Amino acid sequence: MDAEMTVQQRVAPSIDRRQVVQLLAVAALFVFFFMPSLAFLVERWSQSEEFSHGFLVPLVSLFLLWRKREALRQTPLQVCWWGLPVLGLGLLMQVASDWASVSFLKALAVPVALGGLAWYLVGTRMMRVALFPYLFLYFAVPWPDFAIEVLSVPLQHFSAAASTMLLGLLGVPIERDGVHMWTPRFDVEVAVPCSGIRSMVAILGIAALVGYLTQGKLWGKGVVFLAGIPITMFANVLRIAAIVMMGHYINKEFAMTFFHDYSSPFLFFISALSLLGVKKLAEKVE
């Protein structure tokens, strides 16, 4: 009994008031130095539909850490000097973002520096326990504009082609020229916002979370995460096909106003159900 208590005291970390004050001071300095980057992130989350989910990402990470609270309590705190080069990289990215006017570096600097600082303060063992909640923060980082442009074009053409094929199989008289689709009573162009890039950014985060919660081996978790890509593309094809059918069989105003603007929850619902189905399948295969 005495030996067991000794082991528990050795393993369980203890944080006194002085450490709490030091951590608060470090946090205040971190926020002060990275205030331009944090302000940029909040502004981008507020103004961009693709990354409006960024407000939720830190809250999800905190919730995941809370779920691991027992494991965190039993993991000893150890200073790890390897975190300082990572922190330095984040600081360098912050400075370089202002010097070179690269907004992506400004956004990326925050999680990089935060990871380096946490690694230095709590050690490698603690970071291993908190690895996924930390990595999940990167889903809040807005993608660079050139990446969105490069991915949007092929997604536009795929969505238009696949939607046309699906509508043809359903008996809808449909024609297509590039990203332009039309029927005798309705015509629509699959623009960049309708390419599926917006939903893919958010659904990949959901897929990572569902994959993390999947019971079993690492490959099963990876399958669930990667499944988010084709699931998002297929759900977007269904959405476009539904808009065309509404415009052809009902009227254009209904299709392009009410249904177009409020069909996003339909896309997320289909994607979430599909991800849960892949999760169940991966757990059964295990």
**Percentage of residues in DSSP E strands:** under 5%
Question: So what's the overall shape?
Answer: elongated
Please state the oligomeric state of the protein chains shown: single chain
Radius of gyration: 24 Å
Helix-strand topology string: HHHHHHHHHHEEEHHHH
Structural class: mainly alpha
Low-confidence stretches: 1-14
Distance linking N and C termini: 39 Å
Tell me, rounded to a whole number, the average pLDDT: 85
Model description:
- β2 and β3 form a beta hairpin.
- This protein folds into 2 domains: 2-142, no CATH class; 146-281, no CATH class.
- It is mostly helical and 286 residues long.
- The chain contains 14 helices and 3 strands.
- It has a 3-stranded antiparallel sheet with strand order 1-2-3, with helices on one face.
- The longest helix has 32 residues, at 218-249.
- The radius of gyration is 24 Å and the shape is elongated.
Give a brief outline of the structure.
By secondary structure, the protein is mainly alpha-helical.
What is the topological layout?
Layout: H1 2-11, H2 17-33, H3 35-47, H4 56-67, H5 69-73, H6 83-100, H7 103-122, H8 124-129, H9 131-136, H10 145-169, E1 175-177, E2 180-183, E3 186-189, H11 197-213, H12 218-249, H13 252-262, H14 264-285
Antiparallel strand pairs: 1-2, 2-3
Keywords:
14 helices; 75% helix; 286 residues; 2 domains; mainly alpha; disordered N terminus
